[in-house]
Specification:
cell membrane, mainly alpha, transmembrane, 11 helices, 258 residues, 0% strand, transmembrane helix, XK-related protein
């Protein structure tokens, strides 16, 4: 909201329109949240629909999780199910809404207005928000493993620093490349996306069973892999992580070098 007001006051209508456009994909997570409320037997009322229209539906879910945890205890199965829903929805919202906003504001700071305070703060908070969404999802998957308790705060902090550093370098490399070579950045990102998508197909992930949805899932996750790694297969992931970071490190070094 501050970034939108900032561009409106300064008359930068182009950046204003792009910033508003970054909000639109976030409604996919809000719509999915409404559908999940209906699937759970909760008929969405006017108040709930208004909250989702204002993109506050996930905050409502966080409130429900906090209240259920206080009443039933953090280890209850129902609480974990609600936590899983909100973590997945938050990750989806971050990838669809926060990530494009981060790229846009980072480009404004680097290429258009280096002294811009509001775009800089907005980009920094978006980076932390995206990193925290990934950490929250990892935390939930850790809790779902049999016999595992909640990791200590030091582990969560290390995960947050790792995700923030990884995302920050990827975004900075792409923004600097876009500043020098303009639309050629889409060619570089496209090649990376194709490599990651083919790699995911070769892994034969089985999260989605239908062939068409399976291909779509791999294509979407391939786009996410331009920026960060998300483990989608059970079992040890050491080799997959090594391959991902080898490709990502080469991509970052090459982009920074040219």
């Amino acid at each position: 909201l501050c970034a939108i007001i900032h561009y409106l006051v300064r008359g930068q209508l182009g950046w204003l329109g792009l910033t508003i456009a970054c909000l639109v994909p976030g409604y996919a997570a809000q719509l999915l949240s409404i559908l999940w409320f209906r699937a759970d037997g909760h008929t969405p009322g006017c108040c709930l629909l208004a909250l989702h229209l204002l993109q506050l539906g996930l905050w409502k879910r966080y409130w429900d999780v906090s209240r259920a945890a206080a009443e039933k205890g953090g280890a209850a199965g129902e609480v974990l199910a609600q936590l899983g829903d909100v973590c997945v929805l938050r990750l989806l919202e971050a990838l669809l809404q926060t990530l494009p906003h981060l790229l846009l504001q980072a480009y404004v700071v680097v290429a258009v207005d280096p002294a811009g305070f509001i775009p800089g703060v907005s980009a920094g908070l978006s980076l932390l928000s995206l990193a925290w969404a990934l950490v929250s999802y990892s935390h939930f998957t850790y809790l779902m493993k049999p016999g595992h308790l909640s990791p200590p705060a030091a582990v969560i902090l290390c995960l947050l620093l790792w995700r923030t550093g990884m995302l920050g370098t990827r975004v900075l490399a792409l923004v600097l490349f876009a500043r020098l070579y303009s639309f050629w950045v889409f060619a570089v990102a496209g090649v990376h996306w194709l490599l990651m998508s083919f790699w995911l197909v070769a892994q034969q992930t089985d999260i989605v069973a239908q062939p068409c949805l399976w291909r779509l899932f791999n294509c979407l996750l391939g786009a996410v892999y331009i920026f960060c790694y998300i483990n989608v297969r059970p079992g040890p992931s050491r080799t997959r992580v090594a391959v991902f970071y080898t490709v990502s490190a080469w991509d970052v070094v090459y982009s920074m070098w040219i």
